Amino acid sequence: MTKQFPAARSISDFLAGKRRTVRAVDGVSFTIRRGDTLGLVGESGCGKTTTAKIILGMYRPTSGSVRFEGHDLHKGTSRADRRTVRRDIQAVFQDPAASLDPRMKIGQIIEEPLVIHDQGTPANRRETALGILQAVGLKRETYSRYAHELSGGQQQRVAIARALILKPKLIVLDEPVSALDMSVRAQVLNLLQDIQASFDLTYLFIAHDLSVVRYMCHNIAVMYLGRIVEICETQELFENPLHPYTKALLDAVPIPDPTKIRERVPLSGSIPSPMNLPTGCRFHTRCPFVMDVCSKVDPVLQEVSKGHFVACHLYDTKR
Ligand code: SF4
What we know:
The strands form three sheets. An eight-stranded mixed beta sheet has the order 6-7-8-3-9-10-12-11, with helices on both faces. A two-stranded antiparallel ribbon has the order 1-2. A two-stranded antiparallel sheet has the order 4-5. It has a single domain, classed as P-loop containing nucleotide triphosphate hydrolases (Rossmann fold, 3-Layer(aba) Sandwich). It contains eleven helices and twelve strands. It has helices at 11-15, 48-55, 79-87, 96-99, 106-116, 122-135, 152-164, 182-198, 210-216, 234-239, 244-251, and strands spanning 2-6, 21-26, 37-41, 67-68, 71-72, 89-92, 170-174, 202-206, 219-224, 227-233, 302-305, 308-310. Strand 11 (302-305) and strand 12 (308-310) form a beta hairpin. Helices cover 32% and strands 17% of the residues. Iron/sulfur cluster (SF4) binds next to loops.
């Protein structure tokens, strides 16, 4: 799928009649199997969150499609069908304090999706909400509290409870522990793993912290400037990273052993603007292995070993 946004025009663009677009997502394609967790990693502005918002129905793709159990989420099916499918896809965002209405009690927040989807009586909804509160490790009394009375970790548990109440099949987790204290991160990650098994969930896990992604995900897709540059199983990515950008990302993860010295892939410069993408390989302006072909030919994602795909001319099978 692709997603382009119209960019603000400068005066010279306006006078010249030029329109510019931001190619936030530019030809991304992947599959998530039921019960799996796919991690989406990359620097800020690489298109991870835009991809997530397309899957959540918050944006329409400019081209391409998102298929969920065979249904195209953006066209083809009726509005009622799309509404039903959307119930199966929920989200948990980074900042729990910002995603919970401070004027509503926790019980109302958790029950709200049931009200919107017209499910159950008030008594049923209350029972369901109390059950979900327990499932996410919160006490029944939390039902009558307000978000500001809870800690960050408890607030994120409420956000997870709200995502679970409709019994979804897929949850998009957009940096779900980044805003939390170190001490509660592991608890929330363990909770997410426990409920994945007990609620039969599939996750799309967006994060920039590679150690968290390693702990949580079955497969990882590395994004750079709106494209997936490498995708494979988690263990394979950490043991045998191929793309120079992936290597640079992994090199930035600290090793908790002062005696180990890692050979680093030096990464220079900042990420180019998605309004003015480099020709050929988008990474060529920063890549330490750049070759002549790199600025001319855009590398395609190709399978270099079973289930390991990379978009880089260093691994071109036809060269
Ligand atoms: Fe580097 Fe060339 Fe590979 Fe791009 S295609 S990552 S510039 S070696």
